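README: folding subset

This subset contains proteins for which both the sequence and a predicted structure token string are available. Records are stored as plain text. Below is the entry for Fanconi anemia-associated protein of 24 kDa-like (180 residues), shown exactly as it appears on disk.
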Amino acid sequence: MSESIKVLFSSDLGIVDFHPSGDCAVIYISAAEMIEGLLYRKRLAGLKAVKGIRKVIVAERTYLSLQQFSSLQQFAVLELELDLIPVTENGLHSLLVQMVSAENKISKNPFLQPLKIQDEEQSAHVSIALKNIPKIGEKKIMMLVERFGSLHNIALASVEDLSSLLGASVAQLVWDYFNK
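--- output ---
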């Protein structure tokens, strides 16, 4: 496992301590930082302002920091609506390895997977799902799958993207099916 993870050091991460993947930022709050209490609030507020990434706070929860942990929990989770993961003194390294591993795995969600129309069983399921849309036949189903690759991407497509492939009226029907 350690051979497949390349560790890089950068002092230019700003308020973020770790990036397990491109779309996830982690701030680590030590027990000492939690007991001190003021600096972490500024860092968390700064993280909250960042758009387009998932934000996770990892906090060291020890016997000495139990009282301050509830204050951190209230601020981070209830006020800022951030994810908070408590760890023990020696648990941070294990959590980070798990996060890097999980963040970089190919999703097991079938709606995010590209469709393989060669697989007859999956092709039948996709066809059944898309045939529920009025005015959609096998030819248009194949065009949608070839262009967008997954049901998830079809559902996220704009009316303009769909119209270039299907025409305006059918595109509106497809968009309405997934979005209304």
